[in-house]
Amino acid sequence: SQTIHQWPATLVQPVGSPLSLECTVEGTSNPNLYWYRQAAGRGLQLLFYSVGIGQISSEVPQNLSASRPQDRQFILSSKKLLLSDSGFYLCAWSGYSYEQYFGPGTRLTVT
Amino acid sequence: QKEVEQDPGPLSVPEGAIVSLNCTYSNSAFQYFMWYRQYSRKGPELLMYTYSSGNKEDGRFTAQVDKSSKYISLFIRDSQPSDSATYLCASENAGGTSYGKLTFGQGTILTVHP
Question: Choosing among A6, A44, A51, which should be mutated to test the B contact, i.e. which has the most B CBs within 10 A?
Answer without folding.
Answer: A44
